[in-house]
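User: My advisor asked me to double-check a structure prediction for Purple acid phosphatase before group meeting. I don't want to rely on an old file, so could you generate it fresh from this sequence?
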Amino acid sequence: MERVLAVLFLLAAHAASAAAGVTSPYRRSLQMLPVMPLDADVFRQPPGHNAPEQVHITQGDLTGRAMTVSWVTPEHPGSNVVRYGLAADNLNLTAEGTVQRYTWGGTYQSPYIHHATLTGLDHATVYHYAVGYGYTVRSFSFKTPPKPGPDAPIKFGLIGDLGQTFHSNDTVAHYEANGGDAVLFIGDLCYADNHPGHDNRRWDTWARFVERSVAYQPWIWTAGNHEIDYAPEIGETVPFKPFTHRYPTPFRASNSTGHLWYSVKMASAHVIMLSSYSAYGKYTPQWTWLQDELRRVDRKTTPWLIVCVHSPWYNTNDYHYMEGETMRVQFERWLVDAKADLVLAGHVHSYERTHRVSNVAYDIANGKATPQFNASAPVYVNIGDGGNTEGLANSFRSPQPDYSAFREASYGHATLDIKNRTHAYYEWHRNQDGVKVVADKAWFTNRYYMPTHTN
Ligand SMILES: [Fe+2]
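Assistant: Sure, here is a fresh prediction for Purple acid phosphatase from the sequence you gave:
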């Protein structure tokens, strides 16, 4: 009888822990992953003399009536103009861009980097555009996001820590198959700094690799630690030099003074990008901007408040544990007061989703340092599982803390499908043997329109 009771007790204990959170048993190889070789097909340069390559777009203003097109030309500056219009055979509008190069480590010279912003666009409209001239014109298209409004739908892809391994390629392929409208990229793009001398050819290969998605839909950039590229040993002492030359952000449109922290409004979402690797202490430019920015959020128009930051504030993996803590202490209270819906982070190379928790009661003297369930708090998603060369973070803390809803050390991406002002459907897609698998899913309810609902 005692044994039966003991078994029942163990089963009950197991059920209680399962309700608290799931640690997925699925396991991938934990080894470092091979980077795709320089001659991989996804890195191939397009044919034609001085053909434009590495084409990518990002939103060019606050609300989606402008799009910034970036591309490089390898041999000489070439044309600096984007031709665009409503039909592929009638590109009747033009935008003049800028062109620049940079050097790296005394040995590398970048190709000619162009940026041009197409303005005066209509919302929710397909535009065709072309770069290059003569025999080397390359043509693409994109759709602008819907006009900001409470029920305007949009489906975001959520990708972080992508790199350029074979798993990275799977992640992009699976995201393409899922068909999002735009990507919120949570930092750590190409991992050039893992190569000797921060081999900047890896910035070029990565941009060729992701062109197949980012030339056709805006990716919104958050900077990670692999964008810092601080390398005094080779004379490179200006942080973020390759990233800022290659990846513009519309920071001025949201009254920011820094390339790395800014916001965009897309459909029913107000998305804030923060920089884990720029000053955020009190009185700093990022701190001041965020304080002002949260006052500018209009939930009646854009009910979904999403914050992207590279280093996670809640993460139950030993890998990078507590690295985001100082920023959490600085900003969490603001996000809880603002009833933010979702905080996206990367950096830790695994996947995790939390319940709605906050840890804002601590004041050094009262000892209240345990995260609490809080309907006003955001869900924290860690999506640092894009597939980079450093391999997986598989050292989860045990027992699984109550605030962790689901965690798994695998590669993948997520999608956030905002349906209307009250509901968004979220899925995490594991890269499993080349076939995308939905391994975690949830309906999120909006914190402004359904503030007491716990999901
Ligand atoms: Fe990182």
